Amino acid sequence: MPLHPVSQPFARGGLLVGSLLMLILALLSVSSFNAFNTVINFIYLPLIGICTWPRTDKIITSICIIFIFGLLLDIISSGPLGLWSLIFLINFAVFKPHMRLKPLVFSTAFSSWFLLLFFSSILIYFFVWFSIDYPPRVMPLIIQSAIATCLFPLAYGLRHLLKKIFIDQFLRDLI
Amino acid sequence: MLGSNSNSTKASNIALITALILAGALFISDRGSQTIFLQTRSNVEAIASPGIKFLSIPISMIENVSSAFVERSKALSENKALRDELYKLRDYQKESRIMELKLSRLEQLLNSSNETNKTSVQTVARSYGEVNSPFVRSSLIDVGKKSNIQKGYAVSTVDGLYGHVQRVGKNSSRVLLLSDINSRISVMSLRSNSRAILAGNNDDFPNLIFASNYEGWFEGDTVLTSGDGGMLPPGLEVGFVIKDATGKLVVDLNTNSKTVDWILVTHYNPIETPISQTEIQGNSTHDLASISKGF
Questions:
Q1: What dotted CATH number matches B116-266?
Q2: Could you tell me the pTM of the whole model?
Q3: Nearest one of B60, B264, B53 to B171, comparing CA atoms
């Protein structure tokens, strides 16, 4: 990950696409899917929004939006307040998705998704342990990771669609 | 941290650290209790619930397809089982009619009434946001204050008790599921009348704790709400007792492995604590004092 500033121009509307994607993924993540006598949740889904966060120079706005979406997810998933905000912000600071040098392509996004997922799973494990006073079971975390990974192409497609709707065709590759 | 050494980067670093500290402070203060910003939580849930409901539409369509597929594959065997059950139930129906008659005569003799009849008001609602994450087990339902829903009301499905209302918004409510780590309800065994507390553990099989009589609980016992403490109506089916891998008695909930879509909210007002004699006397003296002041 680069530590120097991004010198390329930024596409207007990138933050709008990122925010809309986060909103949709956050709301989807608390919808449950009951099939074949199993309840499936998509609680890791909003992490895709962080992984594919648009390239932007509006870092403070990005931090504020991510913080608010974290709180929103905490509230609608009825979890401890601040948990997802912390996880999102730590991921944002570590992986710096807003500072990508090249436009996002699926293969790069998918490989960085694995890194982010692994790191987030460790964070979630310890934060949940701290929150409920005993270590959570690992299997549900692995299942959640697998579900989110399976849904990654769909979320990426949704991002692409939002890009097509909200961003000028000559600037789409800049986010 | 986030870019070059320019002023904007400094500002963004400060913003990030502030946000991290704020999130950390919220997380630590809300740890385990989830009691801060209760009103804000209800309001946000009320705003977000139409969005969740809208996004649940395609999911529920896929659910319907999969459940139709499962039902079709089971149809023949279920038909046979249902026919056998019907023959058995005809005998039970005869017996229950006789029992009903006997019970009503006994009630007339004792001048008492069946307590379960008091909880006849129920609201049908839809559950659309079940969260079964490693740290919380709850669900959102589409009824709230407008439908006279109150905190503590029992929420059940056709299979049995599902949870109780934890927070009430304008048009939506948050239900704490029986399996959530914060859920505690008083239960009894149908066979032995032994009492215990059903304690959630964020697993599918909640524990039986503080059992009044451990010998009174056996594997296969049907578990009902006891109504002790007056918070939930008595007699609601919860599940049945099983042994876990360590040999500990846990409860297999009736709602486990079932698609929860439509639910019933039972309107039940907790039994009020009786006013003590001294309080009554205190009130009457106060009343007398106010009357005398008037004169």
A1: 2.40.10.340
A2: 0.69
A3: B53
